[in-house]
Amino acid sequence: MSIKTFALMFFLFLVMSFIAGCAAGPNNMTNIPGSNGQVAGFLLGLWHGIISPITFFLSLFMKNIQFYEVHNNGGWYNFGFVLGAGIIFGGSHSARKCRRGCDR
Fold it and tell me: CB 77: neighbour CB atoms within 10 A?
């Protein structure tokens, strides 16, 4: 085995290990009410997605601010969060703008 092959295999091993380490795990708090007695649903997920850039920045410096509500109802909260994040980061507007001005 040549050194180039070994280096490539080692690099691929590191990349795969990194990807596997970033895989999401189960949320054991799904459908369990939080301290306020409620479970976050679609609308709260949408709101959390919209404010996610601000929340992420603040969560780096303040321990009492969390980026994601773990006491949620599962799929609908996740859908709202992704939809809200898509809205705030441009969504289809960016794709439409690129379609008009991009060279193809």
Answer: 26
- Which positions ≥6 away from 50 have C-beta within 8 Å? 84, 85, 87, 88
List the one residue out of 76, 85, 79 whose CA is nearest residue 53.
Answer: 85
**Tens digits of per-residue pLDDT, 45-90?**
999 999 999 999 998 998 888 888 888 998 899 999 999 999 887 7
**Alpha-carbon span 43 to 13, nearest angstrom:** 41
Residue 40 phi, psi dihedral angles, 5° rounding: -70, 135
The CA-based diameter of the chain, rounded to the nearest angstrom, is: 61
